[in-house]
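FW: tagging you since you asked about this chain on Friday. Here's the raw sequence from the shared folder, copied in full. Didn't touch anything.
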Amino acid sequence: MKEFTVPMALVDFIPVAFFAVASVILMRDLYNKMSKGAFALFAAGSINVAFAGAMKALYKLLYAAGICDFTVLSDMMFPVQSVGFLLAGIALVAMLCHRQKKETAAAAVVAPAVFKGTFLFVGLMVAGFGMMNASLCVLSGKMKKPWLSVFFVYAFVSVLVMGYLSSKDFGTSSMNWIAQGINLMGQGAFLTGTILAHRFGLNELRLRGEETV
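HL: got it, structure written out here
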């Protein structure tokens, strides 16, 4: 018997919304700095992450409301979200490391085979979100606002903690509230850093090879 409540499920939608808003801001600010392939990867990855988080929150809401125990919504979170983080992370790293030309093709990415267990998915999630935040720290430095990195480092640390907590019993109410609090603060930091980067002119930042985009 899982100890989910309706308020808990509703709170779970908040960090999902934070990430979605931050991703939209980044897509608008970085559109002219990415090749079509890199932008497609970032957009697809961000959508996957937000979609997976929303489905997990929806599962909790349906369960808490006594409507149904639709476990597929819960089980799909790690596979979909981990691949999403990986795609978004690869896109930002590619933007920083390679000349971004219009004709650059999107990289072919194959989702890992689904198996019972979450270790691989947690690893992909941590790696992907790590690449995203590391790239944003680099961009903060290029904007001469290195202190913005604090928000992105905090967001990444929160995902590390979430990865550790994924091995615990999420059927208990206390563990869910702890995880939601950590996730809420982490995604709140990610959104705050993104908004501040936007206000400080991220969309106007010039990157190597940007003139060919």
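FW: The chain has one domain: 6-105+113-207.
HL: agreed, and Residues 36-64 form the longest helix (29 residues).
FW: great, closing this out.
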